[in-house]
Amino acid sequence: MCHYAERRSRRIAMLMADGVRTLDVTGPLEVFDAARALGHDYSVALYGCGSSSTVRCSSGLALAATPASALTDAVDTVIVFGGESLVHEGVPRDLEQVIAAKVSRARRIAAIGTGTFALGAAGLLDGRRATTHWRHLEAFATRHPTAIVDRESVYSRDGDIWTSAGSAAGIDLALALVADDHGPEVAHEITKELVVLSRRMEGHPQISAAARTPRPKHAGLQRLMATIGVDPAGHYELDTVAAQIGLSPRHLARLFKAQVGMTLRQYVHEVRLENAVGLVLAGESFHAAARRSGLRYGARIRDHLEAHRVVAEPIPNSPLLVDPGGAEAVTVYAG
């Protein structure tokens, strides 16, 4: 449920322990500060576990913080931050107790990165969909088998529980919280103010297809993959691409699979689907997104979003158009 019809002050409590990543904290802080500059009343306070008045980030930066014992029920949203120690050493008992006793009473609860482990330890994620940093997904799934692990999305929402992959993804989550409070137009303005290249929304992958794919050593394959990224709707028929690179089709197929880890067809499809999802989440219709990305049917995009329980929200001056029948067929050459 969105709350941007309400115009009231919102108190944000950021709860953290030593070892937190600096960007995990400062990214969301900047988002709420930009929202405040736009006239939206956010009051943000930092809270640390234990009795210390400082929290030391993994980078060495020390942050002034109020002891978590001072948390009150007047807080609207609590954001819990983690650190590598929550994964390797477990969640500190005092942090778990604070979350169970006080955080659970907030209207909205969020976790950045490994902060998801803290919510899980406090029992708040039983039967809930959640995510964390991609590197710790397996550890989280093993430690919290009753949670529904979203292994792909940059952030995930299940009712009043929000979780994200952390680091830069914390900015995306904070923008989503602001959009939930005040509408997507405000989040769009903050994106411009902070010079964020592109606002990622629920359903966007934590790591792009290009970033999660091994870089080939062959210069021709490097150029090919760069071209696919720039023009996913292009024609990538195996015979044509092989002739352009100067290889036989069979050699290209073997070389691509050996150096990239998947076939050319599979890679092209992943890039196209990722591009199309981004276009839909930015306000394009399934039909238009499919055509611009080189996919045959818009239904594939819809199925992907439904699998992740994602509802695309319109952005300013770009109404979301939905084609229930999907896109018309287009010629696809994937090799």
CATH class of the largest domain: Alpha Beta
Could you estimate the helical fraction of the residues in percent?
A: 40-55%
Unreliable stretches covering 5 or more consecutive residues: 314-335
The CA-CA distance between the termini, in Å, is 44 Å
Describe this structure in words.
Helix content is 42%, strand content 13%. It has helices at residues 22-37, 84-88, 93-101, 115-121, 137-143, 168-182, 184-193, 209-212, 219-230, 238-245, 249-260, 264-281, 286-293, 299-307; strands spanning 10-16, 42-48, 54-56, 62-64, 66-67, 77-81, 108-112, 129-130, 148-149, 155-158, 161-164. Mean pLDDT is 87; it is low at 314-335. The protein folds into two domains: 10-193, Class I glutamine amidotransferase (GATase) domain (Rossmann fold, 3-Layer(aba) Sandwich), CATH 3.40.50; 208-335, Homeodomain-like (Arc Repressor Mutant, subunit A, Orthogonal Bundle). The protein contains 14 helices and eleven strands. Helix 1 packs parallel to helix 6, helix 10 packs across helix 11 (249-260) and helix 12 crosses helix 14 (299-307). It is elongated. The protein has 335 residues and is α/β, with parallel strands linked by helices. A seven-stranded mixed β-sheet has the order 5-2-1-6-7-11-10, with helices on both faces. The protein has a two-stranded antiparallel ribbon with strand order 3-4. The protein has a two-stranded parallel ribbon with strand order 8-9. Strand 10 (155-158) and strand 11 (161-164) form a beta hairpin.
